[in-house]
C-alpha cells in the first residue's frame, strides 16, 4: 500500500515484471506499473492507450513456476512417474529452489507454518534466491503497518487504546508466538542448519506477508486436484498479481490455468484508471489487522460486536441445543454479530430496515437475551438461526432489544471519544490509519443510532396514521434532533432511503406507553375520571409510604395500578374495554394466571415486598377513612368483595410481577449523544420505563 516501499520501488517493480515475463508471465500491453504519493506503487491503464480496456481482458498472467506455496516446500510433482525425462519432470514440479526443509518438520507443523518458514528461508537466501526479484519488492519489516507492528515507544500503540484492535492484536500475537516457538523448536530438533536464523522477527514478517498478500489454493485448481490439497488452510503467493491495490467491490477475477494464474478485469477500464484488486468484502478491522491500512469510505465496513451469552442464559442454552441438533454448524463458529455501514451493499433486497444496519444474528441474539419467560416459550431454534417469531405479544422483546442495542451504541461512541482525548495529531502512517479506523468505528455507531432510535420513536408515537405525509413529518422531526452538519448529504440521503424505503421489522406503532399515555386507551367515559383518580392516589401514597421516597420520578406503582384496574374491569365485564385493552388483558390473564385466593403472595425482592406491604397498609387505612375516594372507580371495575378487589394485596403483587416482565426500559434522548461538546463534557445516559401494550 501507499508509503510501504523504498524510494526506488518503481525500478524494483519493473525489474519484477521483467523477471515474471522471463519465466513465462505476461502483462497486457495496455497496463503499466505506476507510482504516486496517494496510491503508492500500483497498476493502471496507460494514459496514452487509445481505448478502454474491455472486460475479460487478462491484465496479468503469473506463471505457476514463480508462485510460492506449501507445494514448493515439499517439491510437489504434478503427476507422472519416476521414469519421466528430467526436463519434463522439472516442468512438472513446484521447485524448492535450494531450500529443503526437513520432512519431519513439514509433517509436524502443517502447511500453514511450513509456508511461513519457507518464505523466511527464501528471504535469508538474499540475492542468491530464485524469488529475490519478488521478495525485495515486498514491504520490509520496518515498513509494515499492521497493529502487530505498533509499539509503545513511538506512541503508536496508544492510538489503538479503547478500540477492538487492542484485543485482536493481543490474541493474534499470542497465537503466532505459540506457533513460532513450537515450529522453531521442531526445526532445531530436526538438526536443520541455520535454524537459529529463523527468528521471531522474521517469522512475524513472513506471516504478515502471507496474511496480507497470499491467495487461496483455488488459484492452483487448474493443475492440482482437490484430493491433493491439504485439509489445513493453504496460501499461495502470486508475484505481480498481488501488486494491485484493494478497491471494495472491484470487478476482477483470478482465473486458474494449466500454466499460469491470470488476473482478469470484469469491467471496462479507461486510460489512466487504476486497475484494482478485490480482497473481498473486508471491513476496516480486517483491513487493519491483515493489511495495515483502512478506508475512510469503505462501503463494506461493519463492526463486529462482542456479545457473550452468559452461562446458563436462555441464549447459551439455545445455542448449545442448536449445535447439538445441527453439528455442521461447528464448522463456522463465528456468531456473525455485526453493525453495518449505512452504505453496506451486500444485503438481501427484502431485508427489513433494522436488518440493513444490524445483522439478523445480532438482532435475534439480543432479542433472546431481552425476552421474558412468556416470550421464550415461543423460541424457535433451527439450522438457520435462533429467533422469536413475531407473533402477538413478542414485539416487546424486539423493542427491548433495540433499547439494549442503543445503549451499546452510545457506550461504544463515548468509549472511543474518551480514549481519543489527549491524543496528538498523527505523526506517521500507522497513526493516520489508526485515526481513520477510530473515526470509521464511531461513524458506524452514530449512523446505526439514528436508525435504531427511529424504530423506537415509532413505538412511542401514538398518533401516527397510515398516510405518507404523516410518516415524513415524523421523520423530519426525528432528523431535526441530529446536530446540524453531523453527516454529509450523501449519508443523510442514505439514512432517508434506509428509513423510508425499507419496511420496518415491526409494522405496529405506539406499543410503548408512558403513564400519562395510558388513559387515552380507556373507554371515553372513564378517561377523565382515571386521569384525575390515579395521579391523586399516587400523590397520596407518596406522602404516606416512606419507601416511595426513594423514587423521585414516576412512582413504581403507576403501571401495576393501571394493569390491575384493567384486569379487574375485563374480568367483571361491568365496563366494556376497547378491543386493544380487552385482548391485552385476556392475553395476560392467560399467560399469567390470576393469584390464588387462599394464599398470600409475596414479591421475591425484599425491598419490593416492603414497599408493597406499606402500600397495603395505606390502602386499608384510606379505604376505612376515605372510602368515597374509591367509589367511582370501583363502579367501573365492578369488584365488590375484598379478595377480588383490584387493590387487594395479591392482585397488586400479580400486577407488579407482570409489569416487571412486560415493561421496557429505554434510554432517553439517544440522539443527543451525536453532539460533541468541545469542553469534553458528556451528557448523562438516563433511562425511562415504558409499559408495553401490543396493538395487534
Automatic annotation (TrEMBL):
<protein>
    <recommendedName>
        <fullName>SET domain-containing protein</fullName>
    </recommendedName>
</protein>
<dbReference type="GO" id="GO:0016279">
    <property type="term" value="F:protein-lysine N-methyltransferase activity"/>
</dbReference>
<dbReference type="InterPro" id="IPR050600">
    <property type="entry name" value="SETD3_SETD6_MTase"/>
</dbReference>
<dbReference type="InterPro" id="IPR046341">
    <property type="entry name" value="SET_dom_sf"/>
</dbReference>
Amino acid at each position: 500500500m501507499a508509503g510501504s516501499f523504498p524510494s526506488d520501488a518503481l525500478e524494483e517493480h519493473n525489474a519484477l515484471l521483467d523477471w515474471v515475463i522471463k519465466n513465462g508471465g505476461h502483462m497486457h500491453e495496455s497496463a503499466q506499473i505506476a507510482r504516486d504519493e496517494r496510491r503508492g506503487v500500483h497498476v493502471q491503464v496507460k494514459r496514452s492507450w487509445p481505448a478502454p480496456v474491455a472486460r475479460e481482458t487478462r491484465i496479468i498472467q503469473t506463471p505457476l513456476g514463480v508462485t510460492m506455496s506449501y507445494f514448493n516446500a515439499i517439491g510437489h510433482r504434478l503427476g507422472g512417474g519416476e521414469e519421466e525425462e528430467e526436463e519434463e519432470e522439472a516442468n512438472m514440479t513446484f521447485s524448492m529452489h535450494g531450500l529443503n526443509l526437513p520432512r519431519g518438520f513439514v509433517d509436524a507443523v502443517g502447511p500453514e507454518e511450513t509456508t511461513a518458514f519457507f518464505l523466511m528461508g527464501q528471504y535469508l537466501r538474499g540475492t542468491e534466491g530464485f524469488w529475490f526479484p519478488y521478495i525485495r519488492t515486498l514491504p520490509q519489516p520496518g515498513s509494515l503497518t499492521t497493529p502487530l507492528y505498533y509499539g509503545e515507544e513511538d506512541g503508536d500503540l496508544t492510538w489503538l487504546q479503547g478500540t477492538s484492535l487492542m484485543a485482536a492484536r493481543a490474541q493474534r500475537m499470542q497465537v503466532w508466538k505459540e506457533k513460532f516457538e513450537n515450529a522453531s523448536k521442531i526445526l532445531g530438533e530436526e538438526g536443520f542448519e541455520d535454524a537459529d536464523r529463523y527468528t521471531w522477527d522474521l517469522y512475524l514478517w513472513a506471516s504478515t506477508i502471507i496474511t496480507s498478500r497470499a491467495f487461496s489454493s483455488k488459484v492452483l485448481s487448474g493443475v492440482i486436484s482437490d484430493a491433493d490439497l491439504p485439509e489445513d488452510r493453504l496460501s499461495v503467493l502470486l508475484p505481480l498479481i498481488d501488486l494491485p491495490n484493494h478497491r471494495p467491490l472491484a470487478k476482477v477475477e483470478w482465473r486458474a490455468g494449466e500454466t499460469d494464474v491470470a488476473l482478469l478485469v470484469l469491467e471496462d477500464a479507461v486510460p489512466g484508471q487504476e486497475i484494482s484488486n478485490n480482497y473481498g468484502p473486508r471491513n476496516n478491522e480486517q483491513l487493519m489487522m491483515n493489511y495495515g491500512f483502512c478506508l475512510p469510505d469503505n462501503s463494506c465496513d461493519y463492526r463486529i460486536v462482542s456479545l457473550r451469552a452468559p452461562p446458563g442464559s436462555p441464549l447459551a442454552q439455545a445455542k448449545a441445543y442448536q449445535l447439538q441438533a445441527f453439528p455442521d454448524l461447528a464448522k463456522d463458529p463465528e456468531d456473525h454479530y455485526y453493525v453495518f455501514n449505512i452504505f453496506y451493499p451486500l444485503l438481501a433486497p427484502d431485508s427489513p430496515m433494522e436488518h440493513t444496519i444490524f445483522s439478523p444474528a445480532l438482532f435475534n441474539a439480543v432479542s433472546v437475551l431481552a425476552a421474558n419467560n412468556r416470550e421464550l416459550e415461543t423460541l424457535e431454534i433451527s439450522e438457520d438461526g435462533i429467533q422469536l417469531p413475531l407473533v402477538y405479544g413478542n414485539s416487546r422483546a424486539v423493542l427491548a432489544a433495540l433499547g439494549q442495542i442503543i445503549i451499546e451504541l452510545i457506550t461504544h461512541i463515548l468509549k472511543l471519544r474518551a480514549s481519543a482525548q489527549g491524543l496528538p495529531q498523527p505523526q506517521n502512517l500507522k497513526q493516520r490509519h489508526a485515526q481513520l479506523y477510530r473515526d470509521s468505528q464511531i461513524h458506524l455507531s452514530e449512523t446505526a443510532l439514528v436508525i435504531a432510535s427511529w424504530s423506537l420513536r415509532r413505538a412511542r408515537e401514538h398518533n401516527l396514521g397510515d398516510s405518507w405525509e404523516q410518516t415524513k413529518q415524523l421523520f423530519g422531526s426525528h432528523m431535526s434532533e441530529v446536530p446540524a452538519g453531523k453527516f454529509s448529504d450523501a449519508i443523510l440521503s442514505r439514512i432517508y432511503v434506509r428509513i423510508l424505503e425499507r419496511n420496518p421489522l415491526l409494522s405496529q406503532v405506539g406499543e410503548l406507553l408512558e403513564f400519562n399515555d395510558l388513559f387515552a386507551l380507556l373507554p371515553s367515559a372513564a378517561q377523565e375520571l382515571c386521569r384525575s383518580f390515579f395521579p391523586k392516589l399516587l400523590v397520596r401514597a407518596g406522602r404516606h409510604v416512606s419507601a416511595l421516597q426513594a423514587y423521585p420520578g414516576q412512582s413504581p406503582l403507576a403501571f401495576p395500578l393501571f394493569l390491575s384496574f384493567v384486569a379487574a374491569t375485563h374480568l367483571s365485564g361491568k365496563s366494556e374495554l376497547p378491543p386493544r385493552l380487552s385482548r391485552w388483558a385476556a392475553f395476560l390473564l392467560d399467560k399469567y394466571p390470576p393469584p390464588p385466593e387462599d394464599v398470600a403472595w409475596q414479591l421475591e425482592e425484599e425491598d419490593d415486598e416492603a414497599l408493597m406491604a406499606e402500600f397495603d397498609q395505606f390502602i386499608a387505612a384510606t379505604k376505612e377513612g376515605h372510602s368515597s375516594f374509591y367509589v367511582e372507580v370501583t363502579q367501573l371495575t365492578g369488584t365488590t368483595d375484598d379478595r377480588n378487589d383490584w387493590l387487594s394485596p395479591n392482585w397488586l403483587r400479580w400486577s407488579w410481577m407482570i409489569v416487571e416482565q412486560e415493561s421496557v426500559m429505554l434510554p432517553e434522548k439517544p440522539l443527543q449523544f451525536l453532539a460533541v461538546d468541545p469542553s469534553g463534557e458528556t451528557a448523562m445516559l438516563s433511562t425511562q420505563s415504558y409499559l408495553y401494550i401490543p396493538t395487534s
